[in-house]
Every structure is written in C-alpha cells, then in structure tokens.
Amino acid sequence: MAYVISSACIDVTDQSCVSVCPVDCIYEGDRKLYVNPNECIDCGACEAVCPVTAIYLSTRLPEEERLHAEDNARFFAEPLPGRDEPLGDPGDSVAVGRIGVDTELVRRLAEGGAS
Amino acid sequence: MTPRVCWVVGAGPAGMYATQAILRSLEDVHVVLADRRRVPFGLGRFGIAPDHPKMRRVVTPLERIVEDDRVTFIGGVEVSAARLAELAPGFDAVVIASGAGADHPTDLGDTLASREVFGWYNADHGVDTARVEEALGADREVVVVGGGNVSIDIVRLLAVGEDRLRATDLPERVVDVLVARPRRPVHLVVRSAASELKFSAPMITELVHELGLRVRVRRHESYWGGSSDSPSDERRSSLELAVSGDDLDVDVVIHLGAQAARAADGAIEISSTVDGGSLVRLAEATVITAIGYGPGALMTDLRAAPSWPENAYVCGWAGNGAKGVLGTNKADALRIVEQIREGLAPGDSRRLDPAAAVAAVRSLADDPVGIEEWRATVDAEILEATRTGRGVERIRLQPGADGLQFGTERKESLPWPT
Ligand SMILES: Cc1cc2nc3c(=O)[nH]c(=O)nc-3n(C[C@H](O)[C@H](O)[C@H](O)COP(=O)(O)OP(=O)(O)OC[C@H]3O[C@@H](n4cnc5c(N)ncnc54)[C@H](O)[C@@H]3O)c2cc1C
Ligand code: SF4
Ligand code: SF4
User: Fold this and answer.
1) ipTM value for the complex
2) pTM of the predicted model, to two decimals?
C-alpha cells in the first residue's frame, strides 16, 4: 500500500508532511516531494497535515492521480535524471537532504503547469 | 568548552523524537535519556498493535537514535517531580516526555483498563497477567467501552482468528489465551454518534474487508439524522458496509450513540445515549474500558509544585492529554527543540559535564540498566522465536530481585558497563 504524494504538491513543497513523518521517509526532489513506499509505515500522519490534499493512501488515489503511486516508487527504484545509481531506501530523508531532481513525469507536469 | 547536556525523561516516541531533534539541531551535545521501563520506546513498543507489523516498524529509526554515541539510555529510572526540579539546573534543557497516566476511571465496577489489556498482549512488564487472562478466558461476552483507535485495536485482537494471531509476534501464551476464548461476539460501545467518531475509517474498513470479520453496527436512530455534520463519505460507507452482518452470528457488534452501565445485579446494560432506551443486557460480561488517559504522576506533581523548572519543556502525550498519533509527537518535538535552541544560555552555566550528568540520573534508580538490556531483549526474542518455530515472538520482561526473566529462560540483570 503506502501513502503517495500526488501532483498537487508541485511547487507547494511546504514540508508540513516531512515534520510529522515518524520514519523520515518523505524525500524532497526539486519541485515536489515523494514517499518511499518501502519505508512508509502507513501511519497517515502526513495525509492529515497536507495543506493541498496532495497525499493519499495508494488505494484511495483519485483516478487521474493513480500514476503517482508508481512514480513515487520510481523516484527511489530507478536512477534519477543525471544520476547513475538509484536512491534506494536510505532510511533517513533528513540525512539525505534536498535532492534537487524530479522524475521525468513530475518534470513534465511541472513544466506544463508553468507554461 | 563542555558540550551541551540535555535530559530527556521518557523514551517513548515523543522522547525519542525530541532526542533526534536535539541531535540534529545542536552541534556539540549529549542527551541523557531516562525511562522507568528497562527498555526504550514506550507505547511505540508496548502500545502499537502486534497485528500491524508495518506500524511497528516505527521503532527501526528509533533504534538508531538510542544507539547514537551522543545518547546515554538509562532504564529503570522513575523520575519524580522533586528529583527533576533538583537536577534540572545541571542541564541545558530538560524534556518531559513521560506520556499519559492511567485510564480514565468509570463507574462500571470491576473492569479491565485498556493499559492492562494492551500491556498484556504486548508483553509489557508490570501487568497482572493472571487477572487479565482470567477475565478474558471466562465464558462470557466482552464489552469494550470507548470510541478511539485503542478500543478498535482491542476488539480486533479479541475477534480475529488463530491464523492471524500466530502470524504476529504476540507471546505464545497470549495467543493460546485468545484462541481458547469462547467464540462470542465482542461488543464495542461508543458514546459518540457516527459523525463524531474518533477512530479512523481504515480501522473499521480493515475489520470488514481485510479480516472478513462479521461486524454488525447497531445505532441509535438519530445516528446520522440528528446531527448536522454528516460523517465523511468514506466513514459512512465503511459503516454502512459493516451493517450487513448476520444478526445472531457475528464477531463484533458496534453500538454507536450508546453507553454501558452496571445494573444492581451485576449485569451490563447497553443503552442509547439519546433516550436511554435499552439496547442489550448481558447478565455477565467482562468490561474493558478505553476512554482515554489522565495525566501521569510526574506531570501532575510538576504542575502542582510552586514553580516550574525554567528549562523544562513538555513533549508528546505528557502534555497534550494523550491526543495524537506518532507523527503528532514528532511535530511537537521539533517545536519544543526549536524553543530549546532559542532559550539556550550562551557560554557557560552551572552545567554538568556528560559523565556527571549520566551519573546524576543513574543515582535516581536502585537498579539502573543501560541499552545493553534492550540489545539482550532483542537477542533473546530471536532465540525464543527460533525455539518455538515462529518468525518472531515477543517475550515478557519480568524484572525482579533475581534478575530478568525472558520467556522460559532466566538470566541475570546485565551489569552497567564501565
Ligand atoms: C494501544 C495503542 C495503540 C496505538 N497505536 C498507534 C498507531 O497504530 N499509530 C500511531 O500513530 N499511534 C498509535 N498510538 C499512539 C502512540 O502510541 C502515542 O502517540 C505515543 O506513544 C505517545 O508518545 P509519548 O512518548 O508521549 O508517550 P509514551 O509512548 O507513553 O512514552 C512515555 C515514556 O515515558 C516513560 N515514563 C513515564 N513516566 C516516567 C517517569 N516518571 N520517569 C521516567 N520515565 C517515565 C514511560 O515508561 C514511557 O516509556 C497508539 C497508542 C496506544 C495506547
Ligand atoms: S505537505 Fe503536501 S504540499 Fe506540503 S510538501 Fe508535503 S505533500 Fe507537498
Ligand atoms: S503515512 Fe506516515 S510513514 Fe508514510 S509517509 Fe506519511 S507520515 Fe510517513
């Protein structure tokens, strides 16, 4: 299952979710944040604080946001643009810090939104 | 310059997140982390339901914190308000993260408190296991009173089948008692109407959809109609789905807008909160109350004292009336550590150095233990699980004059490392 951050987070990135995540499994890309599905414990704390309702349990994602379940996973499982290695499961988003790169999908969505 | 020294009282989630935030935000710092239990993590270990293994993983990052070189865990230390006030000036800051106190009392006569029940199944120490096992093993219905997630946890564990129970890390003994329980419906009595329910929708959905339990919801007629707020759609649908249980042969009956009372003859009567109309009468029942918690002794005494220690901050369930989930404590910890950082006196003070600070806190206990006790517990649990052939098995720590008892084996208390 795991919780998923969907497109509404793009360019909001206020990090309210980060400060309540008990296992530090919410990582900051560039213009959006991502939940590591292997590390998430399904506690739901992030969903309750997101100011733009960007966060859903994967099984409850609205139809048009479904692709973000896979995209959140991809952020960790596949090398990000410009990188050789996938991020994997570092187990500590605070130690990793801001990554500064988004997935292809999010980059496309973000640019589309800006134009 | 000597490092900053902080004292965190209580190593539950709130104390652990406070420790983590201190380590992350202060450069040169040592944290003395004290708990009355012999092992850390509070309700993170002794509260969270055993059949929610994913949620239980919350302790994984906490283990890293407690093993940090800049942290000294001291278990078996019950900190009193007087001692806290006395030692506080030796620290840069004191964080009070001692959690909530006992279950709120009721006028239902002899009942089991939720702390006894989840303490029993989670192998906490200091629980009268014989009392809990006798009450749950008796051939009578169980009535759980309370509308929060804790009451749902208890109902679920009483209702699920043996396969589910064996797949958890519940102590073997607990599984045996639960499996031997007569198959009778578990009643959940919730005062609120559906619109004010405190438990989260997924908790109910889980009962019906994931576990396939037969759940019947009995409700007072004004259950949605009477209140102007309607329940969230999702909650409504999970409740409506749950209604379709068989009337006679169900695992769980949820009474909404209802209250329980003990009649003169000892029977338990469940009635409507709106018109007092009787819904169910049970000649004999084991009652478990889970209606929230009062403040703990440490906070009560500190609040009653003439002055509050100026460098003491409150975090988590100790300060917020036992409200909030794991993540709430984390946000709380970040907030108070920010205050601590701003309030730090520059330069020197009458601070103790780390070794003296550890010694001062250790001296509060007759038999203090270090983090080795936790490591030994984890090792012993792995051993025990290998012996019984289950994947994992929680064991009950029974500290006593003759050392600790792990499951069936007895071992000496570990000496303090020198
Ligand atoms: C049954 C149950 C199930 C729960 N399930 C979930 C869940 O699935 N998801 C979720 O997000 N939240 C859950 N919660 C809530 C979560 O457990 C709490 O939010 C959290 O434990 C509160 O943390 P705390 O550190 O403030 O208190 P506690 O966890 O109670 O920790 C307080 C610590 O202080 C110690 N202490 C107390 N007094 C003293 C003293 N005088 N001196 C020294 N030490 C002292 C105690 O031994 C304890 O270790 C559950 C709670 C319960 C009761
Ligand atoms: S709280 Fe919501 S908007 Fe803010 S960073 Fe998290 S997901 Fe993005
Ligand atoms: S559900 Fe809990 S563990 Fe998962 S990302 Fe949200 S806050 Fe973190």
Assistant:
1) 0.94
2) 0.91
